[in-house]
């Protein structure tokens, strides 16, 4: 059966055990996972526990062999509370106290960068996923124990440019692009690439400078955007920061023709807080529940996984990060099965040479940025729509990866005018 225990410090320990006495002598394999279960990034951690249950169902029916015996696979999850400094402490606890064999670093640079730093420091194989490649690659000179899967910021810029074009503002249109980036690792990486490439594409960039995470006063930025009559608002923010920015834009009656925002506009649980302003917002889609992906490990498809999630979660669509959490665990199990050992060098070798189809698409670490080996994953342009009273993110542009299925038409209209 699946055994769970919830202890202090927000740790969830899960282990697959059985009543058979032979399991007490089985080799124990531990996977460490730091998740933003609570705090400003909790939307990115949503659904992880359900995902872990699905992976355990697979392991129950398809035991993992280590040193020729059925292994007792344990997944130890700590809640980072969306705090990067706490991520370091928890990852070290997983390595030093829990003695994990493998780490998972997932859900935004705020989690991935600190966890991978611990993996490198203590030489623990690490499955990294769901953080833009650029800030992770630039966080240190080299990586030996970390292999990553996600998209590059250049691809996100091209995705957003496709959305701007849909909105009637193609390159060389002279449209004004207002930037809203935090002064953190993620914001710094996005800001540098977006400002440079937007200028190269003939847009007029209105850059008020980067703000401190947790800022609650965006009135000066709102005044600048109002004065410059900005057409496009773009950036990447945590949800509380963007909510504060929206309040300032409303107070100054700032009107945008389109808004493309990363991080804060990805999950229904986050955008619901924006009220009517959420309708028409645009963001990237890195995993769509209607995608034609099938897991080599479990045999399930994106569609079937979402249907199962909805059935057990009051009809709710499976969040994008939950899809990536599933993929991270797929990659971890693939690694353990291939290595068939707890030896960290054998696990690292297995991880480095993975070439598999996952629920988010194919993963093969054949690309490199700086000292980081990574596998680039697909991305498309999405827009939030109100369907039967529910906010739904639909694919409206696939210009970057035409293989992604478009699921709705772009709807024009000023999102801020609709809200105020």
Low-confidence stretches: 1-9, 17-23
The count of helical stretches stands at 14
- Percentage of β-strand residues: 15-25%
Mean pLDDT: 93
The strands making up the biggest β-sheet line up spatially as 1-2-6-3-7-8-9-18-17
Instruction: Specify Rg, calculated over alpha carbons.
Output: 21 Å
Distance between the termini: 53 Å
Overall SS class = alpha/beta
Assembly type of the chains comes to single chain
Q: What is the overall silhouette? A: globular
Specify the biggest β-sheet: 9 strands, mixed
Helix content: 25-40%
Work out the number of β strands.
20
Commentary on this structure:
There is one protein chain. Helix content is 36%, strand content 24%. The chain contains 14 helices and 20 strands. The chain has helices at 42-45, 48-61, 84-96, 109-122, 133-137, 153-166, 185-200, 219-228, 239-251, 268-271, 302-312, 320-339, 344-352, 415-419, and strands spanning 2-6, 11-16, 28-35, 65-66, 69-70, 72-79, 102-106, 126-129, 146-150, 176-181, 204-206, 232-236, 258-262, 282-285, 355-358, 361-364, 367-369, 372-376, 380-387, 390-397. The strands form five sheets. The protein has a nine-stranded mixed sheet, sandwiched between helices. It has a four-stranded parallel sheet with strand order 11-10-12-13, with helices on both faces. β10 (176-181), α7 (185-200) and β11 (204-206) form a beta-alpha-beta unit. The longest helix has 20 residues, at 320-339. The protein starts with a strand and ends with a helix.
């Amino acid at each position: 059966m699946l055994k769970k225990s919830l202890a202090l410090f927000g740790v969830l320990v899960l282990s697959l055990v059985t009543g058979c006495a032979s399991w007490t002598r089985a080799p124990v394999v531990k996977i460490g996972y730091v998740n933003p279960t609570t705090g400003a990034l909790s939307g990115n951690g949503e659904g992880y526990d359900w995902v872990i249950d699905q992976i355990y169902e697979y392991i129950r029916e398809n035991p993992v062999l280590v040193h020729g015996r059925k292994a007792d696979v344990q997944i130890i999850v700590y809640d980072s509370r969306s705090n990067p400094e706490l991520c370091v402490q928890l990852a070290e606890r997983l390595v030093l106290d829990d003695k994990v064999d493998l780490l998972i670093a997932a859900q935004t640079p705020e989690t991935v960068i600190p966890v991978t730093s611990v993996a490198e420091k203590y030489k623990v194989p690490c499955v990294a996923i769901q953080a833009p490649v650029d800030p992770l690659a630039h966080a240190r000179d080299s990586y030996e124990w970390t292999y990553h899967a996600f998209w590059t910021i250049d691809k996100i810029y091209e995705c957003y440019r496709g959305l701007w074009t849909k909105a009637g503002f193609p390159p060389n249109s002279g449209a004004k692009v207002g930037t809203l980036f935090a002064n953190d690792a993620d914001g710094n990486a996005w800001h540098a690439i977006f400002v440079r490439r937007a200028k190269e594409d003939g847009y007029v960039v209105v850059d008020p400078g980067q703000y401190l995470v947790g800022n609650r006063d965006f009135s000066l930025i709102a005044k600048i955007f109002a004065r410059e009559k900005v057409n496009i608002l773009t950036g990447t923010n945590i949800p509380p920061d963007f909510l504060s920015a929206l309040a300032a834009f409303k107070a100054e009656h700032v009107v945008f023709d389109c808004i493309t925002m990363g991080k804060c506009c990805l999950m229904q649980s986050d955008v619901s807080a924006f009220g009517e302003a959420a309708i028409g917002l645009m963001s990237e889609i890195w995993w769509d529940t209607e995608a034609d992906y099938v897991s080599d490990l479990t045999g399930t498809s994106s569609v079937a996984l979402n249907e199962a999630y909805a059935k057990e979660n009051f009809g709710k669509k499976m969040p994008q990060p939950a899809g990536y959490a599933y993929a991270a665990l797929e990659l971890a199990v693939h690694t353990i099965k291939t290595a068939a050992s707890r030896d960290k060098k054998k696990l690292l070798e297995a991880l480095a040479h993975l070439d598999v189809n996952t629920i988010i698409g194919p993963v093969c670490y054949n690309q490199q940025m700086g000292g980081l080996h990574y596998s680039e994953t697909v991305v498309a342009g999405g827009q939030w729509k109100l369907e039967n009273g529910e906010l739904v993110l639909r694919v409206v542009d696939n210009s970057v990866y035409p293989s992604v299925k478009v699921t709705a038409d772009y709807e024009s209209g000023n999102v801020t005018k609709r809200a105020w």
